[in-house]
Amino acid sequence: MPDPSEPLPARPAPASHLPPAARTSWLETAGPRIDMIARIVCLSAGCVLVAAAIVGLFVDVDVEGLIAVLAAGVVLVLLPSVVGRLRKFKAGQFEIQLMEQIASTARKSAEMLRRLGMESELNAYAAIYTEMRGPELQNVRGQVLDRVVQRVSNASAVEKFDPAEIKNLFTHGAPIIRVLALGLMEGDLSLIDSDVLLEAIGKPLTGNEQYHALKVVLYGWGRLSPDERTELRAAINSGPQIEAGPGRSALAQQIREL
Questions:
Q1: Cα–Cα distance between 102 and 213 in angstroms, integer?
Q2: pLDDT tens per residue, range 59-104
């Protein structure tokens, strides 16, 4: 029989009365496990896609489909490391507010993009684009950027942007913003500005910028005056960088044949 003077053993406290640290400990342990599982799934799926693309090189497979599979595999393989690097930065220390940069030179354009719900998408892309560096990631960056440009192009097809703002956006914007300005021109050919196209073709900051400028020239050829066409052809023929990219070279040849 227990001594009445001894304290009775403490009963386990109900879950609702446990201290906050005890109630949330399972979340703290589950979080890293879930993160690790997600990383393994991404890496496994990416390796499978890359392997499938390599096998496709030796069989009769559509080239465009093969490229899409390879690109998807590379993105999945690289995604865990990119996300990991982004998480190392504390909130506020690494946050690229692309829309704020757009608003600084094109306020009405930024408001339209916000109204279409594109702010978070563009900001997130800018962060990822900044992290994906190195020549081995150049093609992946280009493909992702092309998709974002397509979204911006669709926006200009449903909203009427100010041509003066778009020109100002290109002139004073960072490299990614210059490409987005060209994307807006792709969606609304009334925004075309020959001075912008001449600079993007003759003095591009990136290969993507030159590529999309050539697309705008090709699509908007009928809107250009004879003098503008002559100047743009001369810029295309004298641009050695154009031949460095198969996509740019093909677009330049189509323009020469117009």
A1: 19
A2: 666 666 667 766 776 666 666 555 554 444 433 333 457 788 888 8
- Look-up of token digits 């196209």: 197
Residue type, 15: A
**C-alpha–C-alpha distance, residues 127 and 140, integer Å:** 15
Residue from 201, 212, 196, 193 nearest 242 by CA:
201
Q: Residue 165 is which amino acid?
A: E
CA distance 62 to 84: 34
Residue with tokens 């996300």: 83
**pLDDT of 124-157, one tens digit each?**
777 776 677 777 677 777 777 887 888 899 999 9
198: Cα separation from own chain's centroid: 25
Q: Is the model more confident about 140 or about 181? A: 181
Cβ neighbourhood burial of 86 (10 Å; 0-12, 13-18, 19+): middle
* pTM listed for this prediction: 0.62
Tokens of 149: 């440009």
Q: How far apart are CA 119 and CA 126, in angstroms?
A: 11
Residue 190's nearest CA partner among 226, 219, 213 is 219
Q: Are 248 and 214 in contact (CB under 8 A)?
A: yes
Compute the radius of gyration of the chain from its Cα atoms.
26
- What is the Cα–Cα distance from 33 to 26, expressed in whole angstroms? 11
CB 57, CB 88: distance < 8 Å: no
CA angle 213, 216, 217 (to 5 degrees): 90
* Listed residue (116, 118, 123, 103) closest to 173, CA to CA: 103
